[in-house]
Every structure is written in C-alpha cells, then in structure tokens.
Amino acid sequence: MPRKPSYDRDALIAQARDIFWRHGWAGTSLKDLERELKLKPGSFYAAFGSKDTLYALALERYAQDGVASMRTLAEELGPLGALKAQPRRVIEASELPTKACMLAKTFAELQAKDHDLAAQARTHMVSMKTCFADLFRRAQDAGEIAPDHDPDRLALRYQSDLLGLRLSAERDDVNAAEIAEDIAADLDRL
Amino acid sequence: MPRKPSYDRDALIAQARDIFWRHGWAGTSLKDLERELKLKPGSFYAAFGSKDTLYALALERYAQDGVASMRTLAEELGPLGALKAQPRRVIEASELPTKACMLAKTFAELQAKDHDLAAQARTHMVSMKTCFADLFRRAQDAGEIAPDHDPDRLALRYQSDLLGLRLSAERDDVNAAEIAEDIAADLDRL
DNA sequence: GGGTTTCTTGAGCGATCACTCAAGTATATA
DNA sequence: TATATACTTGAGTGATCGCTCAAGAAACCC
Fold it and tell me: Which of A117, A143, B31, B48 has its CA 20 to 30 A from that of B54?
C-alpha cells in the first residue's frame, strides 16, 4: 500500500550538512534548503520535522564522519602519525564546503542563546577530544611521545590548535600550511 | 537652534559591540538593539543609518581596543611578557560579554556570504597580527627569543592559537587555563 | 484494475525582519 | 518669549521568516 519517497534521505542530510556548515544556522533559510534539496515545504517537514531537527542530524553526521576518518587515519599512520597528519589534511581537503569546523561554528553562533544545538555541538566536540586523547595515549604506549604528559590535556590543546588553524585557513591572507606544519612539529617535541 | 541628542553615541556603540559580540550579526535583531540601547527605530536610524553601519562601528571599536590594550600590556611587561600574559588575560577577563574573539565570530559567520563585514573583520585581524609580529620582532631584538624565527610566521601561529583558545574557553567542559599556560610555555622555547 | 496509503505540491498562515516617515516635543538662538 | 531646528516617537511598510495543510498524484497490495 505505501509509496516510497523519491529522495535519498541520507544524501539530503549530507547536502544539508554542507549548506549549514557553510552558511550557519541563522544564515540558512528554509527557502535555501528547499531550493538546494529540491523539496517543497510539505515534503521537507514530512521528512525532517523542522529546520532544527535537520540541523541536528547534519551535525551528528558531521561528528561521526570526523571521528571515523580520524580512526581510519590512525590505522594507516599510527596514532602519532595521524595526529601529525591531521592539521595538514584538514586544510588541504578541497572538497570541504569550508575549512572551519562545523561544531565550532555551531557552538560559537548559538551558545549565547542557550540553543539546544549548541549543547549538541559541545557534546560532539567532547567525543572528538576523547578520540584525540585516545590517540595520544596510544602514542605514549608506543613510546612515540614521553610518558610524563596528560593525554587529556594534550588532546585539549591539540583540539584548540586545530580550531584556530581551521578558522585561520578561511582567511585568504594567511598561509595556513605553515601553521599546520608548526602544529605538527610541536608534536615531535613531546 | 539645534537640539542635542539625549544619548551618548560612544557609549551606545560600546553597548552595541557587546550585544553583537555575544549574539552575532544575524542573532541580533533591530528589536534587540532598540530595547537594549533604549532607542526607538527613528532615533536608531537617525543616529547610525543601518544595522550594518552600527556593526561596522562596533567592530572598529573592538579592534582598536584590542591593539591598544596589547600595546599597553607590552609597555608594562615588555614584548615577550605581553605575548605570554595575553592568553591567560583574555580568558580571565570576566567583564567580557563572551570569551571568543568578535573578529573571528564575525568572519566565521559572514565570510561565506561575501559580506562586507567579513572583509572588515579580516582587515582588523591583519592589524592584530601585525601588532603581534611587532612584539615578536622586538622580543628578538631584545634577545628574548632566538633570532632564527620569522616574526610574521610566529605571529600567525600565535594568533591562530589565541583564536582556538578563546573559542575553547566558551566551553564549560574545558580547562582553558591549562591551554593558556601551554601556549605561554611554548613561547619560552623559541 | 480497484482501493488504500503515502508522498508531493504550493498557496498561504502569523510572526518577525530591517527599515521609513510624518507628527509631536524639546532646546537652542534671537 | 517667539521661532527655528533638531531630536523623539511609534504606527506601519513590504519582505521574508519557519511552518501548516488540504488537495492531487503516484505506487503499493489484492
């Protein structure tokens, strides 16, 4: 009896993620989404319920992909190798809609309003930090960095540096590659 | 013949700066400004012309204060002392409406839209970077850091780190003081 | 093919957006 | 005090906001 939707829900979420990522929460209107996703208002609300719900789905997708790609990188290059490669990788990725971190942009935009999405972004940032801390711990276990460092503290500093790097990478007057190199070089001195 | 305005224009700009700083460009409505600045629409537009014009004034004020306070700090503590003190100082300043940098927030929000205010924010960030580079140069001249570093490169990395720190300082799950210490400690190893 | 169920469509909802302007009010000079 | 000149007020502009819903179209099961 039922009829299948004509769209690919997962693909729409990914597309919405890129739009929100670039233009932000307030900067993306329903009209924008309807035009880009090729959905009329009725279909949009049948599929996702609300703009905020779709944003939350997009944010979750973004965060999951972030952790997953970091894990994949660690399998290739080892924990320290992954941590050293990530800064360069993130600013060189030309397929990204924008260099800055979507979690950071969301948090910066909505935190002052106590918006639910800001809390979600923070939660996802904690997951990412935990992922970094795991890698630092494994790097210590492997003897790649000195054991007298707190992995959580290293992870927090590293995450903070990455946020700064990725925001700086949006500036066309900045040589972000140099900053990325310097961040990676610092990891060798641990 | 004329009649003086009943408001203090400079104070209103400072107040608007704090509101924009906290809530962003799209997140601040004319209604918000009229309520907080206690101006009816007519007075608002007579005084400032448009929301964007006031935002530009607020941004300029923010940037000027930033450079000025860095210069003052350098007179007290010397170039390297100022650079080392700034991370801690910026996250401990309890009078600030928010920890994150207003230039960074503006740039992140509006750059994808090619908004004039994003270009202005970038220009002000260049001024700030130049200020940092001057301090690094002076620290080299004073023999406080090794001469084999490019001051502009150091300034860019430093500014990037500060942006990350200040964004991280908004997270209540993060010990920003530790990150600030680590940034300052790195300067001693130059 | 008939009947059922879902998806698609798009006009339009009330609220809010940035902004305007004519009328009223207060203060300066003469 | 009279007049000229601003400043203040707030109702109201058209546009856009996120969102609703009734009607029509399409795909499934029997």
Answer: A117
